[in-house]
Automatic annotation (TrEMBL):
<protein>
    <submittedName>
        <fullName>ABC transporter</fullName>
    </submittedName>
</protein>
<dbReference type="GO" id="GO:0098796">
    <property type="term" value="C:membrane protein complex"/>
</dbReference>
<dbReference type="GO" id="GO:0016887">
    <property type="term" value="F:ATP hydrolysis activity"/>
</dbReference>
<dbReference type="Pfam" id="PF00005">
    <property type="entry name" value="ABC_tran"/>
</dbReference>
<dbReference type="InterPro" id="IPR014324">
    <property type="entry name" value="ABC_heterocyst_DevA"/>
</dbReference>
<keyword id="KW-0547">Nucleotide-binding</keyword>
<dbReference type="InterPro" id="IPR017911">
    <property type="entry name" value="MacB-like_ATP-bd"/>
</dbReference>
<dbReference type="InterPro" id="IPR003593">
    <property type="entry name" value="AAA+_ATPase"/>
</dbReference>
<keyword id="KW-0067">ATP-binding</keyword>
<feature type="domain" description="ABC transporter">
    <location>
        <begin position="13"/>
        <end position="236"/>
    </location>
</feature>
<dbReference type="InterPro" id="IPR017871">
    <property type="entry name" value="ABC_transporter-like_CS"/>
</dbReference>
<dbReference type="GO" id="GO:0022857">
    <property type="term" value="F:transmembrane transporter activity"/>
</dbReference>
<dbReference type="InterPro" id="IPR015854">
    <property type="entry name" value="ABC_transpr_LolD-like"/>
</dbReference>
<dbReference type="GO" id="GO:0005524">
    <property type="term" value="F:ATP binding"/>
</dbReference>
<keyword id="KW-0813">Transport</keyword>
<dbReference type="GO" id="GO:0005886">
    <property type="term" value="C:plasma membrane"/>
</dbReference>
<dbReference type="InterPro" id="IPR003439">
    <property type="entry name" value="ABC_transporter-like_ATP-bd"/>
</dbReference>
Amino acid sequence: MSQQLSTEPVVSVRHLNHSFGKGALRKPVLVDVNLDIYPGEIVILTGPSGSGKTTLLTLIAALRSVQEGSVKVLGQELYGASKKQLVQVRKQIGFIFQAHNLLECLTAQQNVRMSLRLHHEMPMQERIARSIEMLQATGMGERLDYYPDSLSGGQKQRVAIARALVSEPQLVLADEPTAALDSKSGRDVVEIMQQLAQEQGSTILLVTHDNRILDIADRILHMEDGRLARDTALRA
Ligand SMILES: Nc1ncnc2c1ncn2[C@@H]1O[C@H](COP(=O)(O)OP(=O)(O)OP(=O)(O)O)[C@@H](O)[C@H]1O
C-alpha cells in the first residue's frame, strides 16, 4: 500500500507483550505484537480461540492498560496514559460487539442518539435527524421506535452499527459482530459496516471466526499463540 506509507497510521503497535495472572500462574497472552493500521483500511483479525485476539482488541480500544510495549491510537500513546487520556481516545472509537449491548429501556432511535450525547455542541434536532438517517442507512428506518426486545438478532446488530457509526468515528472496533447471526444476516451487517465506513472514511478492525466475511477485508491478520503469525493483503 505505497500511498498509505506516507500517511500516519491510525493504530500502531510495537513490541506489545501482555500477560494474565501473577507469579507461577503468569500466562503470556500476547508476545511481541507489531502492527500498523492505516486510515480507511478494513482489517480482519482472525485465529484460533484463545490466541489473544480479544485481548489485543481491548488494548487498542483503551479498555485495558498496556503492560509492556507501545500502542498508539489516533496519535495518542496508550502506554502510561492517564485515565483522562484513555477516556478521550475511547470517545473517538465506535464499538460493535457480539452482544450488541443495546439499552433495553430505549428505542432503536434513542439507543443511536445516546452515542451523540457527548457532542454538546450539536442541537437536539440535528442529533435526532442524524440518528434517523443512520438507522435508515442500516435498513432500520421502519423500526425507529421499536425496543430491542422486539427486534431480531440481525436487526439489533444493525442498530448497534448505526449507534457505532452515527458520530462518524475515525476508528471502528468490532468483536465477532456476526457471531449471533445466520449467514445472510451476518453478511448483510458486515456489508453495511463496509459501505458506511467507506462513505465516512473510517478505519475498521474486526475480530472474527466467520470465514464467510473475510473477503470484506483489505488485510487479514492471523494470530496464533499470542503472536501475529501472518499479515495478508487482499487489496493493494
Ligand atoms: N481476564 C482474564 N484473566 C485471565 N486470563 C484471561 C483473561 N482474558 C483472557 N484470558 C486468557 O487469555 C487468552 C487469550 O484470550 P482472548 O480472549 O484474547 O483470545 P481470543 O483469541 O479472543 O479467543 P476467542 O476467539 O475464543 O474469543 C486465553 O487463554 C484466555 O483464557
